Structure formats: C-alpha cells, structure tokens
Amino acid sequence: MDFTQALNEAEAIGISRQQFLRIWECEEKMKYLDDELRQHQMRADVEKNCGDVATATSQIIQDQLQKFSIDQRRVLSNLREELQQQNQALITDISRMLEGFATMVGRVIKGELQTALAGLSLSETESNSSCSSNFSDTREVPQSLRHNNQGSTRVNNKEAENDRETVSSFESLRVEHAIGDLLSEADEETERNKNKGQINQKSTVAKKQCAEAQPINKNSENPTSSYEVSPNVLIFPEDMPVQMLVNDISNVSKSGKIIGSKIYHLQNSPFKVQLLLWFEGDEELKMNVKFWSLSPHPLKSSKRFIISGDIKNKNSSAYSSLFSEVSPPFNLQKPWSQNVDLPLLLKTKRGSYSDINLEALYNRNYVFEEGNSICINWSVLQQEG
Known about the structure:
Elements: H1 3-12, H2 17-49, H3 55-138, H4 143-148, H5 150-194, H6 199-209, E1 211-212, E2 214-216, E3 235-236, E4 242-246, H7 249-255, E5 258-260, E6 264-266, E7 271-280, E8 284-293, E9 303-312, E10 319-326, E11 337-341, E12 344-348, E13 351-353, H8 358-363, E14 374-384
Parallel strand pairs: 1-4, 3-6
Antiparallel strand pairs: 2-5, 4-14, 5-7, 6-7, 7-8, 8-11, 9-10, 9-14, 10-12, 12-13
Helix pairs in contact: 1-2, 2-3, 3-5
Region (Disordered): 125-171, 183-227
C-alpha cells in the first residue's frame, strides 16, 4: 500500500501521525525480516538437499528463524500495549474535559433560567393585578340593588374578593409548576452528563422524576375517592410528557387493582385527565385514559385528544412506543366523564408486539429491579374536533 494512502486512512479512523509512523516502521521492519527469513529458508533447503554435510548449518538457520519470529511477536505485543495505554489516557482526558464542560453549561443555563423566570414572575404578578381589577368590575353590584340592600352589597363584595384570590392562586400555581419543570430539566441535564455511565444513579433519578401511581377503586366513578390527591393543581405540560411509575408490578398483576396516575388539568381546555393501568386474565396488561369535563355548559366546538405513551427499557434507558390513540370528539358538560381504551402495541427494534403480559415485560427488560417497577412516559395533545 502507498505510504500517503495508508496515512490518510489512518487519520480517517483517528490514529495520530506519530502513532502511524511507528506502526509503519514496524511493518517495514517485519517485511524486511520476512524477506531475510525467506532467503535463509531457501538457503537451508538448498544445503539440506546437498546431503548430510549441511544438516548442522540448516539446524542453526532454523534456530535463527525461530528467534526472529519470537522477536517479531514481542515487538508487536509491546507496540499493542503502548497504543492501548495511549488511547486510554486520551479517553480519560476527553472524559474529564466533557465533565467540566457539562458542569459549566449547566450552571450557565440554570442562571439564565432563573433570570428569565424572575422576569416571568414579575410579569405574572402584574397580569394578576390587572385580572383582579377587571374581575372586580364584572362583579360590581347593580345600582338598584345597592340602594335596596346594603347587606347584599357586602356579601357580593366578599364573593368577588374570594374569586380574585382563587384566580391569583391558580395563576401562581401554574407559574410555580412551569418554573419547577424548567429548573428540573436543567438540573437533570447537568446530572446526566456528570454521572454518565452510573446506571444505578440514573435509575434513582428517573424514579424521583416519575409521578408514583396509586391504586384506585375499580367500581368508583370518582378516582379520588380511595386515595388522597395533592391539593395543588397539576397542569399537564403542552410540550413534554409526564411520567407514571408503577411499583411492585408483580403484586399489581395478581391483585386485579386498577392503578391510576395523578390527575392533571389540561391547558386551555376545560378537562382533567388520568392514566389507568391494570392486568386481566393471564396477567395481560390493559390501559385506558379517563377524562372529566369541568365546563358547566356544552363547548362551542368539540375537542379531540391524541394520547400516546412510551415505556422505559432498563438496559438501554431508551423508551419504546407502547400506545397511540385518538379519542372521539368531546363536547359535553360537567359532571360528565368518559374512558378511552388504549390498544397496546409495543414497538421495538426487533418488531412489534400486541399481546403484552407481565412475562413479556420481564423478558424484554422493561421491569426495573429497584422497586420491581415500570416507568411510562405519556402525553395528551388536543385538537379541534
């Protein structure tokens, strides 16, 4: 092979010029030794054919050939070890640089987010003040009623004040939720880069991020009747999924209980939603989503929802598609509710599987040893019906 061509190929696969020169010299030396060995072998064959007189000389040449072969193997072994040590040192230096860079980027992003969110909080405060004043105007008691009943005026003013507090509380909760999500993303990204390769720590972080599922009464219409729900209003994010963690999955499959995620209010839509999971028959996994209407009146236009979900693999930490379904159009009023069944279809690199039971989840590495749990990312997107 031409020297220039070999050099270009070596640089293309990441070998430095200095390493290539050493390898090239060793190969040239080996070629030279091979030529010498071949010539000695030819001489030895000639002398051996000459009779018994050349036997001793032939033996000496064979010993020399064997010695040359041993020297060649020793040179190659030393060269291989030296290259491995150099590559390991290079990998260590690169890893150290990446960790430092990830830490620095995480700090910068966190600082920028805190600055932006401080401005957002100030803007929300001003917006709430404006909203409260406008709301107060709409709640003003008519002139005739003020003259007729001063006690009613005081009651209505008190109601308006309570309504303003409710609006302000709801807006503050929404801002706090958005701030928490953004800061959590920045911290997660920094932590992921710093602790890359530590699988146990990754699973612990993922478990903290997941919203732990709770068992609910299978025959209950109100999903909050059998367990306590956080008093804070949870808003479903528009541009990212939420996570549902189901612990002790083996006992869940045998108990026949329905496991429910936390209840989320959808943004810009008078609905709340909850993901439900249970097992039937031969431990076959079943899932659906429950919607509740919060509107006291029918909507002007119906809503459809695209519901999708992925399940996390414990080996690769990647997510495989588990379900994707479009709901029927919803256009009903409070206290209406409806369940949407989710046909399950597990999609992996090896194929798609529709029959999903507990054994399949174990065999395909979707059950984590820690907590004997599964973790599901799910999202709800709305569109006009």
